[in-house]
Amino acid sequence: MTRIAIRPCPFRTSEMLRQGGVHPVLARLYAARGLTDPRELSSELAALIPPPGLLHIDAAAVFLADSIAARKRMVIVADYDCDGATACATALRGLRAMGAEVDFIVPNRFEYGYGLTPEIVALTAREKSPDIIITVDNGIASIDGVEEAKRRGIEVVVTDHHLPGDRLPDARVIVNPNQPACGFPSKHLAGVGVVFYVLLALRAELRRRGVFDAQNQPKLDSLLDLVALGTVADVVKLDTNNRILVAQGLKRMRAGRMHAGIAALFRVAGRQARSATPFDLGFALGPRLNAAGRLEDMSLGIECLLTDDEGHAWALAQRLNEINLQRREIEAEMQDAAMLHLDDFKPADSTTITVFDESWHQGVIGIVASRLKEKFYRPTITFAPAGDGWIKGSGRSISGFHLRDALDLVSKRAPSLIDKFGGHAMAAGLSIRADAFEAFSQAFETVGRSLLSEQQLERVIETDGPLEDHYYTTQFIELMDGQVWGQGFAPPVFCDEFRVVSQRILKERHLKLLLEKNGTRYDAIWFGRTDGLGDRARVAFRLDANEYNGTTKVQLMVEHAEPA
Question: In 3-state terms, what secondary structure has residue 200?
Answer without folding.
Answer: helix
